[in-house]
Structures are given as structure tokens and as C-alpha cells.
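Chapter review: from sequence to fold.
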Amino acid sequence: MKIKNLLKKQFVFLLTTTFSGILISDFTKATILENNYKEVIDHVWQIVYRDFLDSDGKFERSNWIKIRKDLLAKKYSDSNEAYDAIRNMLSKLDDPYTRFLDPKEFNQMRIDTSGELTGVGIQIVKDKQSDDLIIISPIEGTPAYKAGIKAGDKILSIDNVSTKGLNIEDAVKLIRGQRGTKVKLEILRNGNSFYKSLTRKRIEIKSVTSKINKTKEGLLIGYVRIKQFNANASREMKDTVTDLEIKNVSGYVLDLRSNPGGLLESSIDISRQFIDKGIIVSTLSKDGLKEIKKGNGKALTNKPIIVLVNEGSASASEIVSGAIRDNNRGKLVGKKTFGKGLVQSMRTLVDGSGLTVTVAKYLTPNGTDINKFGITPDIEVKMNSNPILQREIGTKRDRQYRAGEKELIKIIKKTKLVSQFQPSSANLSAVFKKKDNKFIYSLN
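The C-alpha cell string follows.
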């Protein structure tokens, strides 16, 4: 009887402690999660408080301190509530470049700036009228390219998931995945559908493209387009310029149109490939600390340069453009640039989310603050009235390129005339032309 009672008590004790343990565990888990949410909020708050550069002069520390107190006094049931609170907090800064990214968005940003991704190597677009998912082009050397995927192919399904009603972001998520895994695409071409099973691999995003254009005078023009200043852009640019120098181009047209920018260091490295000495850019922190970046004496070429810019040329594109113009290294042709003269730092937060925070403003070599003003080109030229095809960009059908090439030819001719003139010799004909028994200075 005593044994029975003892066993009964032990059973009740075990049941009670287990039950209580579950209640305590759930409560503790909820508390830990809520504290984690608050930790992320406070992490963002601290970064802004410590490093944020207020370009408009509206940031008041006393208000910011009050915001922290209010946010940490609230309860948060899930990460979405905490993330919404962070976004609302940042909106009070009135700075579009200081923004919060959830873990998925932050990972995507890191992929974009790294210059690498894991996928099959296709660029896609969604046709708004037909709702078709269309392949713009396969990237050379990738699984899609080797499998015979062509520009204009339509993707009907991805791993048996129909692309009808599927937005671009969701389609990209389905196509990308772990390296070595397979994805099955249903392709429609010329009215016939078929399947292609592709193995995902690491894809390098090429940010620099180039070609040589030959003028009527027989001059070789190196046309170089930079699409984004990612982690690979500087190396790609170095390889490109080195190759074009070997092929003995007479000058360069550097196309930065619709380039939204990217990494600050990438823009500095690329500027140094054209500018041997002199200031590239200076940055000014919220504490007034000025850091100056200069050429390092290792320019890859001293040949004339024209830079094509437009309303979509921003940030890192404006750093390169400003450096080339202020150093009298070349001329800008096109339309006024976007006007983003602020520098952001990318920070990883405690839960894998991220923050881009404005930490400095940059000035062109002449000390010009171009934020919200942009850079007005030396020669303003509108783009074609009618849109041109992708393959026609950087050709004679491209009005802005055409104007840029014309100006470049003028500079090349002047440069050649000056280089031909030797003060110690009698080759004055290299600089002067004879007309009506009079010598006319020919550089103008």
C-alpha cells in the first residue's frame, strides 16, 4: 500500500513537472523570441545613432532616443511585426538610402554585389500583355547556353509549376538553387514545347562588355560598357582595357548610362585605370572626417576618353564621371546624371537581416557636392526618339554614342597633331595649315 502510494505520488510529480516544464519552456521561448526581436530593433537603432549621416540636417538625437524607448516598450509576436517597426522607424529619417532588408532581401543584395549567383545562366523578362516569361538571352558558357537555350524562348513551367501568373521574383527563386541540383524548364519555341533539365552551377555575373568600332577614318574606338560596379567589375575592366590596348585602339567611349552604381571601392579602382595621378573622390563623414582617394600612378592608358551618361547614371557611375571630368581626363556626353552623392555601408544584423545606412557624402575632385543635383555633361545629347534595340546600343544608330564618338575623333586628331609637333624641328606643317599663302593654326 505504501509502495502504491509512493508510485502514485512519483507519477503525479513527474506529470506535474513535465507539464510545468512545457509551460515554462513555451513561456521562455516566447520571451527569448521577443527579446531577439527587440535586439534586432535596438541593433538598427544603435547603428543609426552612431553612424548615420544626415544630409538634410533634420535628424534630432533627442527624438531618436525617444523612438528607441517607445519601440522597446512594445511587445512583438513575430519577426514581421518587428521588421515593420524597424521600417517605420527608418522612414522618420527621410533618407531613401537607409533601409532595412529582411534575411532573404539581404542575401539577394549580397548576391547582386558579389557578382556571382547559383543558377543556370539566363536573363528573363515578364511580358505584361501576354503574361509570358521570356528569356532575354542565355549567358555564354553557362548551363542554359550549353543546353541550346535561345533568346526569345518562352518558359511555360519551372519544375512543373506553371509560369502563368508567376511574377519575376518568384520565377527567379524557382530557377535558382543549390549548386549541383537540377531544375526542369518547359520551353516554348516556334510553337513547339519541350523540356530541358539543367544542372545549377555558380554563375559569374559579367558587368563589363566591350567591342571595337571602326570609324570612317579607320580609327579603332574601344567601346566599353559597365552595367554595375560589383565585386568583379574592376578585374573585368582591367582585363578589357589591357586587351584593347594590345589591339591598339585610338581612344575609349566608356558607357555608364543607366548604371545605378554599386561598390565605392570598385568605382575608385576603375577610375585609377584611367587616371594616373590626382584626386578620384573624397568622402565626408558625419563627424566631418574627410578621406581622399587618389590615383596610384598605375593607369592602364592615357588615351582620350568620352564618358556616356544619362539620368540613370548614379552613385559609383557619378564618381567615375566626376573624376574623369574634374581631372581633365575626358568629356561627358549625354544627359544630366541622377544625383546620388551619398555613401552607404551595408551591415549584417544579429538575425541575418541587414541594413544599408548612409554614412558619408562624397565630393568630386573639385569639391563639388552633386547629391540631388547630378552632373551636367559637357555635351548634352538626347537619346533616340524611338527606342533602339539592345544590339544597337554603342553603334551609329545610338544618337548619344554617335555624338560621343564624333567628339572623341576630334580629341584624337588634336592629340595626334600635338604629338607630331617637335619644337626643335621644322615640322610646323603638323600644327599649321597653309591657305592662301598664310599659315592657319589647325587645332581649333
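Two observations follow directly from the output. The first strand starts at residue 99 and ends at 101. The two ends are 119 Å apart (CA to CA).
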